[in-house]
Amino acid sequence: PQSDRQCEAARVAFESGDHAGARRMIDGILAVEPNSVPAHVLLARLSLDDRDYHQVLADVHRLVRPRTYVE
Question: How many CB atoms lie within 10 A of CB 12?
């Protein structure tokens, strides 16, 4: 499908450092296909600075130092 090719182009842009271009492509994909899982995964990578959930959670714990939390 067209969105798969567009996601691949956005991924290449992201991995080559063109984050603004990748974001524009992702926004275009999601405007047409709002439930595109590959586009959402790439958007998460872009938004989280290519870090995974556990890395982000560790950063939050370091900054906030919660005594308890619910995940």
Answer: 13
Q: Is 52 left (phi over 0), alpha (psi -120 to 50) or beta?
A: beta
Residue 70 CB burial class (10 angstroms; 0-12, 13-18, ≥19): exposed
User: What are phi and psi for residue 35, nearest 5 degrees?
Assistant: -105, 20
* Amino acid in the structure at residue 41: V
**Which position has the higher pLDDT, 40 or 68?**
40
Q: How far apart are CA 2 and CA 6, in angstroms?
A: 6
Cα-atom radius of gyration of the chain, to the nearest Å? 15
